């Protein structure tokens, strides 16, 4: 892997949201004065940044280069309206009743947007496509994580009676299925769902053993185990791509992230990076594409992109 530390000239701050398979990074570029930071939706590729839309934020993008985010209507109070940025066109998502602010959190390749709407007191989540909205209501449970796949299946994590439970939810049928941890652990987290409805997550003991893997149907398949004497690290987030590569990240102990290329194998990403500046921490990886390229953020260095190099012959 190589390290690309460059932040395009003219930008005070660049916040990467997504990296696609041709290494285009979708990001929010900020220009700040003494009073306000003004966001713009931007792309970044090959060291060149391009501003697409001013007074707007990029939170996600799909494989077709369509960006999900928001238009900022009030910079002082950062009031947003959810919007889709489709190659020059802007489509605002209609306000819901009583809505004050909204944004798109996920955008699938099939055009399904996961939208968060706020009324100033509570937040509502719903799926939106072609003018049709489907509200996601997990009352009375606490919602921790949420994702949606190309088929509209939803997965995430609920907090139920003092325990965390991964789940899979079919909005069409209203069927909610809990994804239980292994018998040796009390809690489970679901983080992402793929096109096959497999759910990536953890079966874990809080502050202790963490099994990282996925639920295929209701069966949990372990890829790696940490929080053990041999591997004492504890992480808080996972990424994966369509090739099954897993990234373990948000580790506060050793301030780095790991790759799991196959079950039982874990590689320290810091050991694989060439040309990184001194002091770079790789503990916050935000995005991963199918090539294995990654984007992240370090509070000392700023945003970074890790490009996977061809394997030596």
Count of runs of 4 or more consecutive helical residues: 0
The value of Rg in angstroms is: 20 Å
Largest beta-sheet details: 4 strands, antiparallel
In what range is the share of β-strand residues? over 45%
The coarse silhouette is globular
Determine the structural class based on helices, strands and strand pairing.
mainly beta
- Output mean pLDDT: 92
Record field, number of beta strands: 28
Name the poorly predicted regions: none
- The SSE order reads EEEEEEEEEEEEEEEEEEEEEEEEEEEE
Distance between the amino and carboxyl termini: 15 Å
Please state how the strands of the largest beta sheet are arranged side by side.
1-28-27-26
Q: Helix content range of the residues, please?
A: under 10%
